[in-house]
Amino acid sequence: MQAPEEQAMPERNGAELLLDTLTAQNVEMIFGYPGGAVLPLYDAVYRQQFRHILVRHEQGAAHAAEGYAKATGKPGVVFVTSGPGATNAITGIADAMMDSAPIVVFTGQVGTGAIGSDAFQEADVLSMTASITKNNYQVHDVRDLPRIINEAFYVATTGRKGPVLIDLPKDIVNATTNAPLPAAVNLPQYRPTPEIDKRQVAALMAALSQAHKPLLLVGNGVHAAAAQTEVQRFAQRYQVPVVSTLLGLGVMPNASPLFLGMGGMHGVYTANIALSECDLLINVGSRFDDRLATAPQKFAPYATIAHIDIDAAELGKIIPATYPIEGDAKAVLQLMLRSSATKPEVSAWQQQLQQWQAAHPLSYEKGTAEIKPQQVVELVGELTHGDAYVVTDVGQHQMWAAQYYPFKHQHQLITSGGLGTMGFGIPAAIGTKLAAPDKQVVLFIGDGGIQMTSEELEVIAANDLDIKIVLLNNHMLGMVRQWQDLFYDRRRSATVFDHQPNFTKLAEAYGITAHHLTDPQTVAADLAAAFATTHAALIEVAIPELEPVMPMIAPGKPNNEMMERD
Amino acid sequence: MRRVLTCLLSNDPGVLNRFTGTLTRRQVNINSISISPVGDNSASRVTAIVYLDNETTAKQLVAQLNKQIDVLEIHDITDQPHVERELALIRVNAAANKRAELFAMVQPFRADVVDVALDSLMLQITGSRDKVNALLRVVQPYGVTQVVRTGVAGFTRAEG
Ligand SMILES: Cc1ncc(C[n+]2csc(CCOP(=O)(O)OP(=O)(O)O)c2C)c(N)n1
């Protein structure tokens, strides 16, 4: 069929065309930083008054876009200049790739004629980002721009989501055209929604009926598919207990009696024992990463495994599955819910799990002399009624937030899971707050990570973003110190801060109210007071230097060989 | 184990980079790769010979490559009836008194002489990898000074 002739448009340059295409894509804001190669782009931003959040370092732009994307499922958009602008953004792009966050990154590039000549601020961004993007493009004709942008958004937000990069030679954004905005994307080879193998689903449901110790494992894929309701309904109907990965937190409300907690390296005892003891493991949207399946050879040794993933390349990558099901988590769960399979007999299993839970609850030694970080997370959970977006940086505080915050919503935890990127926290919290201005946003961060992207405090201040920054200060690179203490005979190489900036003064320098909490007797009231504002606050909490994250599975040990607290 | 992959890539800049990057990132040892545009030049046909541990990793690799947006098509044809061919150009020393002997030796391989110099010949051979190897073995004693091989190109035989 012949496509109808598309209406020619008024003459505009590539930059304007680009912004018009973004508008048509319902992009409401851009996270970015200007520079020489993107001058035409920023001129169009100025003239169109496109909403632009000026970060203070390009890494921040990429993480903010991730925060925006992780909180909403909508794509985050980044503008950076060529060369150093692009290389600064790379950490965030890699992070988005690992955690399947949909972001679209526009990088400036030197003019087409200068590419390859080592021109000023030239970097081969296409090569550098090939392995950390779902796809990347360099535009060679201004008329291709709308098509490429639409493709990029489509690819970023469908299938297994992820980052897409578009490299823009300067002359391309300057060139004018009256090319129309194309409608549909034409990528016949790209099939983001695979046909679900119904026989495999039926076989899985038959196996479920026969199981005695079934277990559901939920990961980030459930958020990506917005399948929280389906997971809950399925777990409820078949009375299947649920374990989550770090990124799967929030799928099952912590308060649900069916929820055993996070599994893996710092997971809850019962969650890990359940992974080891179950006879049928249904993994929905997690990739058996080594922080969960700490010893793949010994993982779930008694279980028949079902693996539901939209990315065929994940099936069998780490753990072979008897029932590999390629498909969107929501669609597969809907099929599973339509089954009339009989319920398995699970009462003995449930009893067993309850006994483990009673004998090995998640716990810490409550301090009277010092404020315990776990207690801080619990108190923040109460203060925010378990409703806040919880953003974290990377380290011990991240694990305490994961263990002790009472999650209940999908997309609620915004954290760097796969790449484990220190410096993620502040910019990701910015993106989260901008995406959900009416929601409370709490950031848990360590004294190491805060120093990696503290420049973004200025963005919080300048935009008056109500983000509560809870800085758990142990004067250490705590997580690394913990490993040194456990596995390197307490040789604390380069992990102890003998000198630290004054963090409250740092926050105040940006115009952010700061508190310093040191008294365990008043910590609850002090936190409440610090939270009682609709503006940002930095709440520095002095915590014990040597508090460990427990339980812990040593790397390479199976899930049932946990260290617990003494 | 040796696997033969045949693949259609969109003919855009950076695509081959992404393709080989996917292989190297998964620590796949590429034995040979041949690539050339086909049809209206909008796509390139690739034949890649790789060595992998087992069939599971082969399936994995195909799935990983298939994920690439620019991979229009990919098949592991190892276990299907298929044809593999390679072309090699071989420069071999050939003093006047050795020529007749050389000609006789390469004849069964149906190699062509495509360049003749005072003291050397350039041979062209097409065929399976084994056949090329065999010819190389035969002419080695005369002194091979230069070899270029295209890498294997192949696809499946028609059914029936
Ligand atoms: C960019 C980056 N560099 C290094 C690391 C390694 N690393 C993981 S956790 C950690 C310590 C983090 O210390 P801090 O921010 O103080 O948090 P804590 O563990 O004390 O809560 C380090 C250095 C990392 N994850 N990311």
UniProtKB/TrEMBL annotation, chain A:
Its cofactor is Mg(2+); thiamine diphosphate. It comes from the Bacteria. Transmembrane segments: none annotated. Gene3D superfamilies: 3.40.50.970, TPP-binding domain. Signal peptide: none annotated. The keyword Nucleus does not apply. Residues 13-128 form the Thiamine pyrophosphate enzyme N-terminal TPP-binding domain. InterPro entries: Acetolactate_synth_lsu (IPR012846), AHAS_TPP (IPR039368), DHS-like_NAD/FAD-binding_dom (IPR029035), THDP-binding (IPR029061), Thiamin_PyroP_enz_cen_dom (IPR012000), Thiamin_PyroP_enz_TPP-bd_dom (IPR012001), TPP-bd_CS (IPR000399), TPP_enz (IPR045229). Its EC number is 2.2.1.6. Binds 1 Mg(2+) ion per subunit. Keywords: Amino-acid biosynthesis, Branched-chain amino acid biosynthesis, Magnesium, Metal-binding, Thiamine pyrophosphate, Transferase. The keyword Protease does not apply. One of its GO terms (molecular function) is acetolactate synthase activity. Residues 202-334 form the Thiamine pyrophosphate enzyme central domain. It catalyses: 2 pyruvate + H(+) = (2S)-2-acetolactate + CO2. Belongs to the TPP enzyme family. This is Acetolactate synthase.
From TrEMBL, chain B:
Dimer of large and small chains. Catalyzes the conversion of 2 pyruvate molecules into acetolactate in the first common step of the biosynthetic pathway of the branched-amino acids such as leucine, isoleucine, and valine. InterPro entries: Acetalactate_synth_ssu, Acetolactate_synth/TF_NikR_C, Acetolactate_synth_ssu_C, ACT-like_dom_sf, ACT_dom, AHAS_ACT, AHAS_small-like_ACT. Residues 4-79 form the ACT domain. Belongs to the acetolactate synthase small subunit family. Pfam families: ACT_AHAS_ss, ALS_ss_C. Keywords: Amino-acid biosynthesis, Branched-chain amino acid biosynthesis, Transferase. Its EC number is 2.2.1.6. It catalyses: 2 pyruvate + H(+) = (2S)-2-acetolactate + CO2. This is Acetolactate synthase small subunit. One of its GO terms (molecular function) is acetolactate synthase activity. The keyword Secreted does not apply. Pathway: Amino-acid biosynthesis; L-isoleucine biosynthesis; L-isoleucine from 2-oxobutanoate: step 1/4; Amino-acid biosynthesis; L-valine biosynthesis; L-valine from pyruvate: step 1/4. The gene is ilvN.
